[in-house]
Amino acid sequence: MRSPDLEAILLVGGQGTRLRPLTLRTPKPLLPTAGVPFLAHQLAKARAHGVRRVVFATSYRASMFTEVFGDGSDLGLEIVYMTEETPLGTGGAIRNAAAALTCPPESPVLVLNGDILSGHDIAAQVGLHVSRGAAVTLHLTEVADASRFGCVPTGADGRVTAFLEKMANPVTNRINAGCYVFQRSVIDTIPAGQVVSVERETFPSLIEAGELVLGFADSSYWLDVGTPAAFVQGSADLVLGRLDSPALPGPAGEFLLMDGAVVSPEAKVTGGTVVGRRATVEAGASVRGSVLADDCVVASGATVVDSVVGTGARVAAGAVLRQVVVGDEAQIGPGNELMSGVRVWPGVRLPECSVRFSSDV
Ligand code: GDD
Ligand code: MG
Mannose-1-phosphate guanyltransferase C-terminal domain spans which residues (predicted)? Predict the structure, then answer.
């Protein structure tokens, strides 16, 4: 199903602090994910569902988005950029970006958080919005722990009854999945030129005012890639084909090799790993479910699981990484074992580690 030509606003102004050090140089939406900048997956999907024109709402490192996506013609889209000098929050960003929309007030406009992988049917969401004449229609999904998200209870008719952003004791597991259809005229009611949170201000006040805010609930693949663990998971899921993406630069499978990548026949590379351009995996190394960036090296006998190895970084012989982020150009000396959540900053050199714990022998 495809809607007639739709306009979209893409929210990409966040700093991505939870993904440091990966986001020190690159905004979260541009991090290489399954071989292409993260947003390429979202944009290709949006296009497949009828979006033809996208307004990027940028702030942090705005010029990098233009360098990567230009005018959008490579993707069959028209992309324009609206930049906030200081971040205006999600609602302020939507209002600011709306100045670049071309559609009339009665048109639906798609609004996307720029850090979401989703398998849901955008065109069906737009269809529901239009057929029910809603002010806003929110994509909703269910997660085990709703406390990190916008909690969204609904009535039997799909009407949203409250919007409770990041509450300590969520009243439901149903959450805001970060993809909205707005009536253009509703966006125009958000105050201009000031910081506004769509989650904490706009949605609660629309509900309070009795406007029809609808939920489009589904249970397709969904992931917010805002943490290192989720980012690695998203990349691996795309490579494995758990979520179809028109932007995947190769067939889905256990691994994806980018141009110039060299993997020894005696290495084991599995679980949706991406091996970046000119990256090397030496004999006896084992890499599972990981993102190896361009020009990095995983030396012989090293083990890398559910981790990110940054551009030009080196993991020496026998080192073990599990759920670790290694920054660009960092060097992990032989024998180091790094676990759950460790982040190595760019350029750091960890010397050889010869200490062995008794449980290892
Ligand atoms: N332009 C602009 N300006 N964009 C912004 C700003 C801003 O001031 N602040 C945040 N964004 C963008 C981020 O880049 C991201 O794409 C999106 O808005 C959401 O921000 P996050 O920082 O990722 O929010 P979150 O993940 O904690 O929560 C949001 O997403 C959840 C779903 O993943 C909320 O919308 C929750 O309600 C929702 O459940
Ligand atoms: Mg997020």
Answer: 253-335
